[in-house]
Amino acid sequence: MNRAKEQRKWLKSMFSEDEPFNSDQMDGKPQPPLSNPVKSLEDVIALPEFGDDIFEKTHILDIINDRVSHRKFKDEAMSLEELSFLLWSTQGVKSIAGDQYATLRTVPSAGARHPYETNLMINKVEGLKKGIYRYLSLTHQLAYVYTPENMDRTMAQAARKQKFAGNCAVAFVWSVVPYRGEWRYNERSHKPMLLDAGHICQNLYLACEAIGCGTCAIAAYDQKLLDNLLQLDGEEEFAVYLAPVGKV
Ligand SMILES: Cc1cc2nc3c(=O)[nH]c(=O)nc-3n(C[C@H](O)[C@H](O)[C@H](O)COP(=O)(O)O)c2cc1C
Question: Does ligand 1 come within 6 angstroms of the Cβ of 216?
Answer without folding.
Answer: yes
